[in-house]
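Dock adenosine-5'-diphosphate; give full complex structure.
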Amino acid sequence: MKALYPGSFDPLSLGHLDIIQRAAKTFGKVTVLISANPGKKEKLSVEIRTMLIKEAVKDMANVDVQVYSGLTVEYALNNSYNFLLRGMRAAGDFESELEMSQINRALSQGLETVFLMTSPQYSFIRSSRVWELLKFGDYIEALVPKNVAKYLLENY
Ligand code: ADP
């Protein structure tokens, strides 16, 4: 079974990586799909996000990284994915994720979204917090994988 994990990953966090690692043990193949969203304010370019995620998942043989600027369900159907995969942090994520999963199911005649609940030690992590904390230096190492912290500290 193949799962597609879409998101902005701007930047990849330890919460994202935990979802990817757990999904890689559950599904035969997991693709991290970076949504290239021209309307959305992105901080890191898709090229840099791709490089950082590829580095972070390099030891997981059944995980790959792709970029797509169209509809996620279109990508999933065209490439024969069985599931969309999303992570859920807390109640605050529930409403928007419920709505998104229902829209995606309606658009795709039945493609299911599966959710993995965050691991407790990562439940407070979101990408916007990384950018806030970056102003204060290497504290971000508690929020993002080592290679991402290194890149951000060297470049921002
Ligand atoms: P989006 O921009 O679509 O919200 P994100 O890159 O922020 O995408 O996140 C992608 C997915 O990962 C979403 O399902 C989100 O809920 C989930 N996620 C983000 N942070 C965490 C975390 N700390 N623990 C578990 N899941 C997370």
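Observed: The pocket of adenosine-5'-diphosphate is lined by residues 7-9, 13, 15-16, 19, 86-89, 93, 118, 122, 125-127 (CB under 6 Å).
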